Amino acid sequence: MEQSSSATMTLETEAMISLRNLRVSYGEREILHGIGFDVMRGETLVILGGSGSGKSTLLRTLVGLERPSSGEIWLKGKNIAAISSGEMDEIRKKIGMSFQGGALFGSMTVGENVALPLREHTKLEDSTIEIILRLKLDQVGLSGYENYMPSQLSGGMKKRAAVARALAMDPEILFFDEPSAGLDPIIAAGVDQLILELKQAFHMTIIVVTHELASAFLIADRMVLIDKGNVVAIGTTETMRSSTHPRVRQFLDRIAEPAVSEELDYLQMLTEEHRHPGR
Amino acid sequence: MELTTQIGESVTDGLAYLGALTSLGGRAAYFTFVAPFQGKPLRLQRAISQAMQTGVGALPILSLITFFIGLILALQSAYELRKFGAINFVASAVAISMTRELGPLITAIVVIGRSGSAFAAEIGTMKVTEEIDALETMAIDPIHFLVTPKFIAMMVMLPCLTIWANSMGILGGALFGVTQADFTWVRYIQSSLDALFLRDITTGLVKSVMFGMTITAVGCHEGLSTGAGAEQVGRSTTRAVVVSIFLVILVDLVFTALFFFMSEK
């Protein structure tokens, strides 16, 4: 799984994000034990894993919400594991993140939500922002909803609005946290469709964290299976389907865990659920 | 041995808490006074709407409470003063205790109940729903976006509210003075003003600015340190109110002592 550091240099040109021996801890407890893989430009990578596997922590680390305790994350030629907050902010303007529950600001309309990054980071005229806003809402199929409050939207629409906000700054990389969580199958399929459209239309690099297998196989170019803070397998959807690795098979064939094997695993599961309730 | 360890732990915890509040206040001060000159505009509009909520919105309830407090003060001091045939001094007793102490303190407590708790609840909810994380991934500093306008609003509005509270308290005392102590409205107000030195009013206002900083820092800090889950928001809100009341009274003590020893010299 791990490449030597000389390989890192040659991969820089085609890899959008490179993780090298990434370790993340909450206090004393290590969640990710040395993750390493590359995300290629323009591909859709799905990070799969069960509750407590560390996949959400991985995503939070990639967007700079958690600091790794060691290891490297190369993103646009910079190691974001070791840069100043000012430099990180510059990189954040080039990435978009769609949160699990949407995370729209409840006190602002949908339009104000989507326009917020533009108003904050650009000196564009209001009329220009208006046009961009319409365009982004159109892309996610929410035209005409700019004056609605987030509380007036359904779950699926909130998620679409959140995608529109993530797209506002024309990001090069788009992150999704559990895009289909809490949605009915039809609406969830709609969100999957939206991700596919974004991929085809803009050749964006898309990273999706999910445990929904159907959705994962539909949208992914490649997949990574994370288990107990380690990469178990990485490969195209076909390689994953034909994999004989016991953990991969268990996950893909939905075989129940025999029983909680160790006290520590159970604790890890509990803490992870405590951090991200309702998952 | 056990006891000393516990005392030591609570002291370090308390100091760490105060440190966190100070750093929050420091960053808000940076965004208010330094950042605007580095091209990060001040969010005056957000500060103004915040000021309307915390300040103007508090006027009715604050007026009622401080009017009653003034009336109570007049009754209580008259109870003692009339024994000496000095009921005329009711006006100065009310005026001095309102402006020096009760005006700022009651205002702070009303604002804690209305706004300190609201800050913690608002920011805590945003934390639980990942809105704070969303701000950060959009490269928007939550301190700049959420906390700084609240600081500005509170530090402007608390002294204003305090002046208003002082006047309402004196008016409450006047109601007693006029109906029970042969004052006329004009003469009561006149003797109140005669009893006051400018120093009485300014020390009250200095305290109220400090209260405003304390309440905002505690409310926002509690909100930002909310854990996961809706019940944590309730916990943060409660803590914000309890800690604010305690710290406001502590700040009150420190400044009152400071003014006392300063005026001695």
Structure description:
The complex is a heterodimer of chains A (279) and B (265). With 279 residues, chain A is α/β, with parallel strands linked by helices. Chain A has a domain at 104-171. Helices cover 40% and strands 23% of the residues of chain A. Chain A has a 6-stranded mixed sheet with strand order 6-7-8-3-9-10, with helices on both faces. In chain A, strands 2-1-4-5 form a 4-stranded antiparallel sheet, with helices on both faces. Chain A starts with a helix and ends with a helix. Chain B has 265 residues and is an all-alpha fold. Chain B has one domain (17-264). Chain B has helices spanning 2-34, 44-54, 59-81, 90-128, 131-137, 142-180, 185-195, 198-224, 230-264. The termini of chain B are far apart. Chain A binds chain B through residues 60, 63-65, 88-90, 92-93, 95, 97, 99-101, 103-106, 116-117, 120-121, 165, 169, 274-277, and chain B through 125-126, 129-131, 133-134, 136-140, 228-229.
